[in-house]
Amino acid sequence: MLIVNADDLGLDSRTNAAIIASLERQCCSSATLMANMDGFEDACELVHERGLLEHVGIHVNLSNGVPLTGAIRRMPRFCDGDGRFRLLRGERVLRLSAEERAAAAAEIRAQIGRLKANRIGITHLDSHKNLHEEIGIFGIVTALAIEAGIPYVRRFRNIGWMTSAIKSAYRSMLNQRLERLGLTRTRYFGSIADYRYECARGNGERLGDSCEVMIHPCLDRDGNIIDRLTRWPLAELARQYDYPGTTISFSGHRYRSPSATERPSSGCEKERAKVDESKQRLLGPVRIDSLDMPEALARLDEMLAGTERRYVSFCDANLFVQAHRDPIFAEVLNRSGMTFADGVLMTILARLIGKPLPRRLPGPSFMLAVCNHGIKRGYRHFFFGGAEGVAQDLEKKLTEKYPGLIVAGVYTPPFRPLTADEEEDLRRRVREARPDLVWVGLGGPKQVFWMADHLAALDAPVMLGVGAAFDFHTGRVPWAPRWIRTIGMEWAYRMATGGRRVFRRNLECVPQAFLLMMREVWRTRL
To answer: Given this model, what pLDDT does residue 471 score?
Structure first.
């Protein structure tokens, strides 16, 4: 038995349309519905209209949107001052007070009740942000699932590239508890990327007997159904398996190339591409441009003078690990017009395998250099990303620092995929602003996928994904002093000053990056 479940039904009408279409075209076998989101009523109507009641479970939500009950709105652990769930909660929920437990239980019970009131049978239970993995929430969720007669609760991830031995052991403990409670249906669970990873290792047949795969259908700008996280076209994926299936084959599946919709290349650009290749270093699955700052600025000038639209990426330890985990992400990263080493591990690896780099080029430093470099050239800048008010503050800080800097526009996106109207509004703003450079501050792999997906849609020659540079240059997050950056210890400084989320991320990815680096050295030296 293979279950392919679509998350986030009820998020909004556009997501609903993508998930319902995915169910009808057998891109997925089930979906989980959020009872407290704006698209809930629309989703219920579509489920009844299309006869999909046997394919819908509940997506318990304590981390996004507006609560259904009043008690939980007064709980700072779950809600902000406006009475809305906090989208990004960094702390671990190890223990709840009696009042918090009662409020959480009342909210979950209300969400289950709302589905039943709309005659949704609830085939299974999952939670937004995998919140029921938290030990303080787990017991509440399982007790209410049994109370409501929900057949099974989604397992915790146990396939793919496991992040750490401690987390793997913790999830194994919770999965065993689900089994003892009789709330499991499959032996394995993971994302679509996790499943692909296992298939590449030859485990597809084993998993196909009893596995649940998670996808996030959405519509791209052309109306095609894609997975929001991996950008895989689900209509193509659906042709590769049937239900109930045994395995899903991902062989030959590729991320949609933006080159098909880009402007045609001229002869001089093709010739320049050959020069680009000679200046690259292959570090594991990632191609890094071996340029110093003056050469990088000169290359940027060439890109702006050409006819192709390009994006620029900066690879740190986190992206290096992600590229090893997911070949699709590595492919998208390598499509960048330029990719620079934004991390000391990358420069050490290059030196150890005999492909030294002139220096590392971090995104925040390159951003400042480009701002200064572009004043005399009249380059127009557009800032996309950051939390509310960050892009506007960045404009103010940089125009004060670099008199004559032209900021053509700013845009702060919501912490979710843009709706069709928001996408069109963004395209209009960029078109009217006529920027030469769009600076993207979304962080991690997300901004690389975003730039690749919007390459043809936005009327801008070059996009640059600079992650935390927005926060550094506005002073919201302390940037490591120059001497710390010089000796290559910026990652440690970030761990100490970046909060729990950054600390945990670096604690996981830096050791993994180091081990992967040693593996690359071993392979190269053999």
So the answer is: 83
